[in-house]
Sequence to fold (168 residues):
Amino acid sequence: MANAPAEPWLRGPLPGLDPLLAPILFSFQQAREDIARYTEQLTAAQIWAKPHGFGSVGFHIRHIAGSTDRLMTYLQGRDLTPEQMAVLRAEEQDSTLSRDELLAELDRALQQAEAVVRALDPATLAEPRWVGRRRLPTTVAGLLTHIAEHTQRHVGQAISAAKLSATL
Fold:
């Protein structure tokens, strides 16, 4: 793509952020840009379509926002709230949220997560954390890595759904 901006990780260091923490923020910026780009021409019906039974673009956007919030809660050593559990249950339900509302929801979740990451001391990366009711073991670094890769996995699924939905 001629004259396309470089991907976030190729735009240089993030001022004031330890380079060990930068990859998660690069992942979030890539998610924002890719989702905005691939949903730009979609109608509301296409955003909520489930091509071939796959998850809708809207579902994937909501899931990125919700899962990032939930995983950041574990990163901070806290349990999920009843409100977070309600958001989880609502992710798979059809919605009437518009593209702009979905992108705003995603941006809010990513901004909140970015604030948590920016406040992290890199010396804590090896500290233990747990995930879920079963309290499965991980570390701060493990959670950050999973949040970044999980975000990108659903971005890819959202792009695929967008491309399929655009043909409907």
Remarks:
- Helices lie at 22-39, 44-48, 57-75, 82-91, 99-119, 140-165.
- Strands lie at 128-131, 136-139.
